[in-house]
Amino acid sequence: MKDVVGVVGWQDGQISQADAGLESAWTSIRAGMRRDVGARMFDQWLKPVRLGDYCAESQTLDLLVASDFSANFVSGQFGDRLRMAWRSAGAGVREVRLRRAPDATGPRLLEIVHAEPATPAEDAAPVAIASNFLPRHGFADFIVGDTNRLASSAAQAMAGEATPRFSPLFIHGGTGQGKTHLLHAIARAFSAHSPAAPVLYMSAERFMMEFVNAMRANETMAFKGRLRAARLLLIDDIQFIAGKGSTQEEFLHTINDLIDSGARIVVTADRPPQMLESIDPRILSRLAGGLVADIQPAGLDLRLAILESKRAVAGDPPVPDAVIDFLARAIRSNVRELEGAFNKLVAYGQLTGRSIDLDFAQGMLADAVRANARRITVDEIQKACAAHFKIDPSEMRSKRRARAVARPRQVAMYLAKKMTPRSLPEIGRIFGGRDHSTVIHAVRTIEALRESNPDMDADVRALQRLLEG
């Protein structure tokens, strides 16, 4: 395995020494980083970083830290600077990845990296390098809600001791919704009860690259042997093999052989099988023949639950309820961005000693909030309020003043003021040509009613959740 230096040990949980050239470069880079960022910042965040795996083929080096929180922070604050320093050091490193240091007693995840051509006697052996399961990606850390319940339950069944009733499991959903988390959770749980069973994890892109390299090196038999030895195969982002004819053919043979042998297969993608373009129909048929489970964007309740779970282990400074509510409502694009926003607030609070309050959170996350903002229209608000209060949408613009019509109209004006950038005169014109003073009166009326009438407050909250998606 001369293409890999400083790698994690095969299956024994031990870490070998990194290549001397990398050690020398790292010593120089550390000295430069200390000068650039200052002793205090360096000692707190960069001094504990140590060398991990290095793959010469991709020229990627892993830098290990003590926790997932530290990995996220160091990557966000110093990742570009570290990458540039390593590229300038002449040590053969083009990319760096910040990762939590391996748990020496934990299970391992097998991930193929480029190997030297195997001898014929080795062809049948699963030649792979051990790579860590991500400790934070377990089932206990996966917060379940209505939008991901099926995928979570199916993943646990796939990882269980009993033979699952379905295979393959196909999980689809948007970026950052938890697909990769479930893959690692499956691998960890499966290895806990079957530690001797080979587990193989790779992205579809890695599968494609490894297959092409195997063909060029005339070692396709060794490549096939590695794949078919797996008792659990996990492939991430299968959409990336679209249009790759020979790769698809090999993938089809692999999953057919593994299914016939009783192995378990889990595949993820960003869309359901029937919507994957330029992929062999035979592959799609195989993937759809097991269980297809989707992960929808997290709703407000799930986002709140995710933040509560992070707050429970974040430590000081405390994050108040108002900030949790703000984050859950403002960061809606995906779970990964939501967790990143929370980590940013806590890290900044820890570094500066500042308490975290709503004004601080809104200022720190202004760019993220703008990026996540969905432009809610007054027309959407009118329709939602009319449906909620069971009146005709035309009543939002009518002149009728009966309470059954006027109160829903006032709620809609209130929400239009709170949830859209429209000015008071603009809102008044949309509501049947009313004066801006009418809108002001409506906003004040609903604000007062929310404080004195729990039913009104519940109605407004329900409408806000509906409109925020």
Automatic annotation (TrEMBL):
<keyword id="KW-0067">ATP-binding</keyword>
<keyword id="KW-0963">Cytoplasm</keyword>
<feature type="binding site">
    <location>
        <position position="180"/>
    </location>
    <ligand>
        <name>ATP</name>
    </ligand>
</feature>
<keyword id="KW-0238">DNA-binding</keyword>
<feature type="region of interest" description="Domain IV, binds dsDNA">
    <location>
        <begin position="350"/>
        <end position="469"/>
    </location>
</feature>
<dbReference type="InterPro" id="IPR013159">
    <property type="entry name" value="DnaA_C"/>
</dbReference>
<feature type="binding site">
    <location>
        <position position="179"/>
    </location>
    <ligand>
        <name>ATP</name>
    </ligand>
</feature>
<feature type="binding site">
    <location>
        <position position="176"/>
    </location>
    <ligand>
        <name>ATP</name>
    </ligand>
</feature>
<dbReference type="GO" id="GO:0005886">
    <property type="term" value="C:plasma membrane"/>
</dbReference>
<keyword id="KW-0235">DNA replication</keyword>
<dbReference type="Pfam" id="PF11638">
    <property type="entry name" value="DnaA_N"/>
</dbReference>
<dbReference type="InterPro" id="IPR003593">
    <property type="entry name" value="AAA+_ATPase"/>
</dbReference>
<dbReference type="Pfam" id="PF08299">
    <property type="entry name" value="Bac_DnaA_C"/>
</dbReference>
<dbReference type="GO" id="GO:0008289">
    <property type="term" value="F:lipid binding"/>
</dbReference>
<dbReference type="Pfam" id="PF00308">
    <property type="entry name" value="Bac_DnaA"/>
</dbReference>
<comment type="function">
    <text>Plays an essential role in the initiation and regulation of chromosomal replication. ATP-DnaA binds to the origin of replication (oriC) to initiate formation of the DNA replication initiation complex once per cell cycle. Binds the DnaA box (a 9 base pair repeat at the origin) and separates the double-stranded (ds)DNA. Forms a right-handed helical filament on oriC DNA; dsDNA binds to the exterior of the filament while single-stranded (ss)DNA is stabiized in the filament's interior.</text>
</comment>
<protein>
    <recommendedName>
        <fullName>Chromosomal replication initiator protein DnaA</fullName>
    </recommendedName>
</protein>
<comment type="similarity">
    <text>Belongs to the DnaA family.</text>
</comment>
<dbReference type="InterPro" id="IPR038454">
    <property type="entry name" value="DnaA_N_sf"/>
</dbReference>
<dbReference type="InterPro" id="IPR001957">
    <property type="entry name" value="Chromosome_initiator_DnaA"/>
</dbReference>
<dbReference type="GO" id="GO:0003688">
    <property type="term" value="F:DNA replication origin binding"/>
</dbReference>
<dbReference type="InterPro" id="IPR027417">
    <property type="entry name" value="P-loop_NTPase"/>
</dbReference>
<dbReference type="GO" id="GO:0006270">
    <property type="term" value="P:DNA replication initiation"/>
</dbReference>
<dbReference type="InterPro" id="IPR010921">
    <property type="entry name" value="Trp_repressor/repl_initiator"/>
</dbReference>
<feature type="domain" description="Chromosomal replication initiator DnaA C-terminal">
    <location>
        <begin position="377"/>
        <end position="446"/>
    </location>
</feature>
<dbReference type="GO" id="GO:0005737">
    <property type="term" value="C:cytoplasm"/>
</dbReference>
<feature type="domain" description="AAA+ ATPase">
    <location>
        <begin position="165"/>
        <end position="299"/>
    </location>
</feature>
<dbReference type="GO" id="GO:0006275">
    <property type="term" value="P:regulation of DNA replication"/>
</dbReference>
<feature type="binding site">
    <location>
        <position position="178"/>
    </location>
    <ligand>
        <name>ATP</name>
    </ligand>
</feature>
<dbReference type="InterPro" id="IPR020591">
    <property type="entry name" value="Chromosome_initiator_DnaA-like"/>
</dbReference>
<keyword id="KW-0446">Lipid-binding</keyword>
<dbReference type="InterPro" id="IPR024633">
    <property type="entry name" value="DnaA_N_dom"/>
</dbReference>
<feature type="region of interest" description="Domain I, interacts with DnaA modulators">
    <location>
        <begin position="1"/>
        <end position="105"/>
    </location>
</feature>
<comment type="subunit">
    <text>Oligomerizes as a right-handed, spiral filament on DNA at oriC.</text>
</comment>
<dbReference type="GO" id="GO:0005524">
    <property type="term" value="F:ATP binding"/>
</dbReference>
<dbReference type="InterPro" id="IPR013317">
    <property type="entry name" value="DnaA_dom"/>
</dbReference>
<dbReference type="InterPro" id="IPR018312">
    <property type="entry name" value="Chromosome_initiator_DnaA_CS"/>
</dbReference>
<keyword id="KW-0547">Nucleotide-binding</keyword>
